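Hi C.,

You asked whether I'd gotten around to modeling the 414-residue construct. I have! Everything is below, sequence then structure, no commentary in between.
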Amino acid sequence: MRHRSLLILTTSVTVGALTLSACGSRDDKSGGGDSGEKTTVVIGVDAPLTGDLSALGQGIKNSSDLAAKTANKNNEVDGVTFEIEALDDQGQAGTGQQNATKLVGNQEVIGVVGPLNSHVGQSMQKVFGNADLVQVSPANTAPELTQGPNWQKGQKKRLFGTYYRTCATDAVQGPYAAQYLYNKRKLKKAYIIDDKKTYGAGLAGTFADEFKKLGGTIAGTDHINPDDRDFSAVATKVAKSKADFVYYGGEYPAGAPLSAQISKAGSKALVVGGDALYSEEYIKLGKKNVEGDLATSVGAPLETLDTAKTFMKNYKAAGYKLPYEAYGGYAYDSTWAVIQAVKAVVEKNDGKLPDNKDEARKQVNEAMRDVKFSGVTGEVAFDKYGDTTNKQLSVYEVRNGKHKPVQTGTFQES
């Protein structure tokens, strides 16, 4: 329940906050202000910085870094300098939990951005919840993280009041893809495969439920080990099923070879997946074998949003070696949300954070409930569960070696 409105930002203020001159370097930590005294506030970032999913993780880290640098350059919070502490979870729940404990133990950490994977996010929630340390994920899409394990039965319950996210969930992403394939592409026969992870299995489940409701046929179902790369047995089953397409709930390291082996088995079925296939790495791994494949992703394409133009320009000017990838804009907005929550607390406390670090964390978490601004990905705000109020989604098709947007919209109940 909201007891007070701590922060209302206008579009003009936020867009201005995104401005970072092209001459600003990645090492610029200046913050402005007249007092000369600065409090260092650390924002933790957790993502897979090495391993198969590192392209997505590095994009998250770099985008969070850009948000912090922008806040410092513009003196977004008077008297506060923001720094990023990025930790590598390697896509592993156990490592993510260890990272969460480490971030809680650093008294300068006032909030955390990440992680990428939903199962990693689950492992971190209780650690942050016990410490009143706010967490904002740019990429976790499993509905149960905000709405509890019985959300599909209509029994929604927020388990951790410190957890937020800036991306839409699989509760809308899977059904949105089902409606597109059934209604727009007129594809009626699906083969469902998932990698047994929280994200993949959940996404495949919501897709299958909606596809069947629309009248589609499930030609077969299978599970794969995401660490495997030989999917010939499953590919043969797909070919024999005569399915129009395969819906894969999983990530690009296994998704790309799976698609290639389905084609090699003689099937003309295209492969469709969620936001974890919407990566340049999917195309690099699959090459020509993934032409025509589809992926949904959260939000509208950044290049179509006026609010994202400054971000894209500044990201390029900052000289990061790797692209911002699918979640860069959401990572920037997640970081900016933490910054705005800090700003609200500073303004409430006569220009400074509470000296007691536990109290500071508690107040920042409380302030997050009312954060609202015009961000890179559109309007950023959170509902009573901590979910984003922005429910836009897009469908992308691999054409000539690039993900090309073919539809953007909002999921409508069928």
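If it helps when you're writing up: Confidence is low (pLDDT under 50) at residues 1-35.

Thanks,
B.
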